[in-house]
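Lecture 7, part 2: worked example. A protein chain together with adenosine-5'-diphosphate.
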Amino acid sequence: MKIALFSGSFDPFTLGHYEIVNRGLQLFDKIVIGIGINAEKKTMFDTEKRLFFIQETYKNESRVEARTYSNLTIQFANEIGACAILRGLRNSIDLEYEKTIALANRHQNPDIETVFLLSLPEYSFISSTVVREMIKYKGNIQGLVPDVLIKYLI
Ligand code: ADP
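Predicted complex, written out as structure tokens:
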């Protein structure tokens, strides 16, 4: 079974992430969405809520599982038997950033590939940062995040 780890902070999970996972499901049998826990990083949503939003979004999709981890992404990928780390690319800034991480991960464990999917143009402006700003200033988040988050905020 081909398992991929889609890692990130997901603060919160957006439709940009959702779209990458959906396309990833065509390449892998199972996708584990791994929320990396960094105690020093301040987040808008606590770990339990970030996990809940993802679990609710995929409650009818048995091939997607949401988990948290606090070790290195590459270590967690190995732990869950993943053959790949899945990441999304929106632009050249993402590419530069992702390239460094992917090479560092390869240095740790060359058996786990990093696979990149280019975000669709209509989703490439979406980021968790933009969503957090919209939430903070009561902007419109329709079309940016899954329904579960919209319902939670009402
Ligand atoms: P991190 O804190 O590790 O950057 P994020 O939660 O921001 O985690 O993102 C996780 C992954 O999803 C990253 O590979 C990021 O590039 C990708 N991603 C984020 N937003 C989008 C989007 N709108 N379209 C495609 N990929 C995205």
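The pocket of adenosine-5'-diphosphate is lined by residues 8-10, 14, 16-17, 20, 87-88, 90, 94, 119, 123-124, 126-128 (CB under 6 Å). The first helix runs from residue 15 to 24. Keep this in mind for problem set question 3.
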